[in-house]
Design brief:
Distance between the termini: 59 Å
Number of helices: 7
Number of domains: 1
Radius of gyration: 16 Å
Structural class: mainly alpha
């Protein structure tokens, strides 16, 4: 069996349990069992950008291209609509907004057609929600502050 055309998937530092690293697939399975909703978000991040293999890495890196944020937003919106559990659907909704926040904060681009007031409200709601990675929350807070400042 041959590996992927672009080489093996990068090793995830958080995939090590004990002194032996697990193969990526097994590490993802264990994460899915431990934190099923957040694992769904990370799976999407990994599919969109294997180098930035977690939601926080994808959304909080200013160098993440807008095209990848746009693709991630579409997939997170699909998770919002089709997630297996309420937790997955809620996470999908929050991460779709977080993608819009990252595009706005780092690239000055909008991924939605919402007006300023609606976008600001969605940033505030997402930033105040439980269960969001602290790095993602801070990024959404920064986008909220920038938009509020620009609104005057």
């Amino acid at each position: 069996m041959t590996g992927p055309a672009n080489g093996p998937a990068p090793h995830r530092p958080d995939a090590a349990y004990g002194d032996l690293p697990l193969r990526d697939t097994l590490a993802w399975v264990l994460q899915s069992l431990e934190q099923p909703a957040s694992a769904a978000g990370d799976w999407i991040a990994y599919e969109v950008d294997p180098v930035r293999a977690t939601t926080a890495a994808l959304l909080c890196d200013p160098a993440t291209p807008v095209s990848r944020l746009r693709r991630a937003r579409i997939l997170y919106a699909a998770l919002r609509a089709d997630g297996d559990t309420a937790a997955e659907r809620t996470l999908g909704s929050r991460l779709a907004v977080a993608c819009a926040a990252a595009a706005y904060l780092f690239h000055g681009e909008r991924l939605t057609n919402h007006d300023d007031a609606a976008l600001l409200a969605s940033f505030r709601s997402t930033a105040s929600a439980d269960g969001l990675d602290p790095k993602v929350r801070e990024m959404v807070n920064a986008a909220e502050r920038r938009l509020a400042h620009e609104m005057g």
